[in-house]
Design goal:
Distance between the termini: 39 Å
Oligomer: single chain
Helix content: 10-25%
Structural class: alpha/beta
Strand order of the largest sheet: 8-9-7-6-10-11
Number of helices: 4
Largest sheet: 6 strands, mixed
Shape: globular
Strand content: 25-35%
Length: 203
């Protein structure tokens, strides 16, 4: 699986997939975001791409940008038990961004509350609304969900925008299975991000 990142004149980001021999067919060949993050971190971008497309790889993933060995190894563990070959690898260390606050991940239209990343379905919304500490952005990520409780596509969006909004941890919008939460938490820790489980009392 070869992943390419394309920006267009509408300031959209499109992650395009070119299948290789053993890959399954993802629901669509493009993951579309209606706004481009101003900050681009290769490690977090690789993690986001693994969240978007990892289920459909046949064992090989070529990311849109180089990622370091620690991130590559974390993605490899995330995709287990499938044996994987991941590339390209950046062997010169790069600093990871440091956030200072947590954000609530939301699916669907919210009141744009402080500390919220809202992921909106592209078939009902377009564009982006941003404040100093919150974001509502439309995407076709819902097409990649394999169940109503599948958080991976929306979490990919949050990972991509975390640096821009100074976020160091994400709180989930609903419960996920314990093993899935563990895998997601370990993957995000590799790029200096925390993951908090859903809580009825989240602020």
């Amino acid at each position: 699986m070869i992943i390419k990142r394309v920006s267009n004149l509408s300031n959209q980001i499109v992650f395009e997939v070119e299948r290789t021999e053993y890959d399954a067919f993802p629901p669509v060949a493009e993951f579309i975001l209606e706004d481009a993050p101003t900050a681009r971190n290769p490690e977090r971008e690789a993690v986001a791409q693994a969240l978007m497309f990892g289920r459909w790889t046949g064992g090989e993933m070529h990311f849109a940008w180089k990622a370091g060995p620690n991130t590559i190894n974390a993605i490899r563990r995330f995709l287990e038990p499938l044996p994987t070959y991941l590339s390209p690898i950046e062997y010169y260390p790069k600093a990871l961004p440091i956030g200072k606050r947590s954000a609530n991940l939301v699916e669907g239209w919210p009141s744009v509350l402080p500390g919220t990343i809202a992921v909106l379905p592209l078939d009902k919304f377009n564009g982006v609304i941003a404040t100093h500490d919150s974001l509502a952005v439309s995407t076709n990520g819902f097409l990649f969900k394999i169940s109503d409780q599948d958080i991976r596509p929306s979490l990919a969006v949050a990972v991509l925008f975390a640096e821009e909004f100074g976020i160091d941890s994400i709180t989930l919008p609903y419960p996920v299975e314990q093993e899935e939460f563990r895998k997601l938490r370990d993957l995000l820790l590799s790029v200096r991000m925390g993951l908090n489980p859903f809580s009825e009392n989240r602020q």
